[in-house]
Design goal:
InterPro entries: L-lactate/malate_DH, Lactate/malate_DH_C, Lactate/malate_DH_N, Lactate_DH/Glyco_Ohase_4_C, Malate_DH_AS, Malate_DH_type2, NAD(P)-bd_dom_sf. By secondary structure, the chain is an alpha/beta fold. It contains twelve helices and 14 strands. (2S)-2-hydroxybutanedioic acid (LMR) binds next to helix 10. The site of (2S)-2-hydroxybutanedioic acid (LMR) has 11 residues, from helix 10.
Amino acid sequence: MATPIRIAVTGAAGQIGYSLVFRIASGEVFGPDQPVIMHLIEIPPAMGALDGIEMELDDCAYPTLAGVVKASSDDLEAGFADCNFVVCVGSIPRKAGMERGDLIRINGPIFTSTGKAIQAAAAKDVRVLVVGNPCNTNCLIAMSNAPDVPSDRWFAMTRLDENRAVAQLAQKSGQPVAAVTGMAIWGNHSATQFPDFFNTKIGGKSAVEVIGDDEWLKNDFIATVQQRGAAVIKARGASSAASAANAALGTLKSIVTPTPAGTVFSAAICSDGSYGIDEGLITSFPLTTDGNKWSVVQGLEHNEFAQAKIDATVAELQSERDTVKDLLA
Ligand code: NAD
Ligand code: LMR
């Protein structure tokens, strides 16, 4: 039997947590032969709810579940002890009428202690996925408070945006989602993000040619993807949860699995300076990986329209970084 992988989920009793922990425990990310130990972390008033989640995990009798550790946010080092993966969901979601960036001073401080505890207690090979918003800048805060954890181990989630973009293009073109390849999100998980339809293919042909409607792509399509989180909040009265958990699962799978030829995946990573984007800024790019080390896809071309969109989203990330400079170590 393989050595169990330890994976921590903060905010495990929240909406996303409830959709996420069972699917991880079931073997969906690491496969049917890889045992996992789930570390579930919550604020003290929600520890009772974690007891219920542990009971339900027991009642699933997953062959892959090798143990459950529960910890409160008052003792994050116990929660992250020896973890190979940490998924940071725990934080406050936005309400109708707010932008994700409005959460920056509410949620940002959570990520200083998170970074410090990851550095102090997690396994040497830890990889961290930040979901809690504003996720790019929260990831930057955690990373800067954990200077001994290499910068290529930090990810913030833009996979939900990628999935939304793929679904929109599939619906518009009348083709299956699997026909849409190469779609990647650039920049921030926010209303400035750029879903790069110019470098996307549908059924192996340029998405621009297949859709045949530049105005729709430049206006309705981009706006729909940028505003989808707000539209879900308006319709459901709460922020996306099942689709967010699904995207977190997809991100984890993508970062541990060699990327299939001809495909890319989106995540915000610590910029290595590719495409002139500030080194160290947590920015979403098109990525590939060998399952261990990721690379930014090189050689993509951006016309004036695309470059202006990328510049705008990077400028927003720079401004968020300025807003939290007191939280950066
Ligand atoms: P929720 O309120 O249902 O759950 C959040 C949970 O986090 C709660 O159970 C709460 O007790 C817990 N929590 C709060 N502070 C904590 C802390 N310091 N340590 C540990 N746990 C803590 O919210 P949700 O719908 O699950 O959303 C969680 C976050 O994910 C929000 O910030 C939301 O905006 C974000 N989100 C991001 C994406 C994305 O694509 N990146 C998508 C959807 C939601
Ligand atoms: C989303 O994209 O659905 C999440 O980031 C939640 C939100 O506030 O939009």
